Amino acid sequence: MALKRVTGIGKEQSAKEKRPCAFGDRCPQLFEHLTATEFADGAMRATSTLTVFSEHGSFKGCLNNKEEGVVAFVTSSTLTGILDAFEEGLEMDALDWRRPHGSKQGQAAAKKS
């Protein structure tokens, strides 16, 4: 399969409204983390970001909780395994959240310990 060139550079897509999708059905906790712009009390929140990459034959994912200034990583042999691991971790409150190295928040936390 040949790769196609990137097109549509500079075209911003609106994310103002959440649209139902298979991803939201499969991983509702993760979907909400990535798309919810308000807390239950109506206060605004920064949405999280998800980065997925492949290294040494494994898929790795980084969930960046921008609101709290922490990140969590998971590894799986499959892409869907990454999504499922984050979903389960969020559901069970079992992700290993850490402050990013080099961040102002991470540096402040390191000084306190």
Defining key terms:
113 residues, 3 strands, alpha+beta, disordered C terminus, globular, 4 helices
Please explain how this structure is put together:
The protein is an alpha+beta fold. The chain has a domain at 44-112. Helices cover 31% and strands 19% of the residues. It is built from 4 helices and 3 strands. A 3-stranded antiparallel sheet has the order 1-2-3, covered by helices on one side. A hairpin with a 2-residue loop joins strand 1 (49-55) and strand 2. It is globular.
Give the topology string: H per helix, E per strand.
HHEEEHH
- Give the rounded overall mean pLDDT: 84
**Strand share of the residues?**
15-25%
- Give the biggest beta sheet: 3 strands, antiparallel
Strand order of the largest sheet: 1-2-3
* Gyration radius, rounded: 16 Å
Number of helices: 4
Which secondary-structure class do the elements indicate?
alpha+beta
Question: Brief overview, please?
Answer:
With 113 residues, this protein is an alpha+beta fold. It has helices at residues 22-26, 28-35, 79-91, 104-112, and strands at residues 49-55, 58-65, 70-76. It is built from four helices and three strands.
List the helices and strands and how they pair.
Elements: H1 22-26, H2 28-35, E1 49-55, E2 58-65, E3 70-76, H3 79-91, H4 104-112
Antiparallel strand pairs: 1-2, 2-3
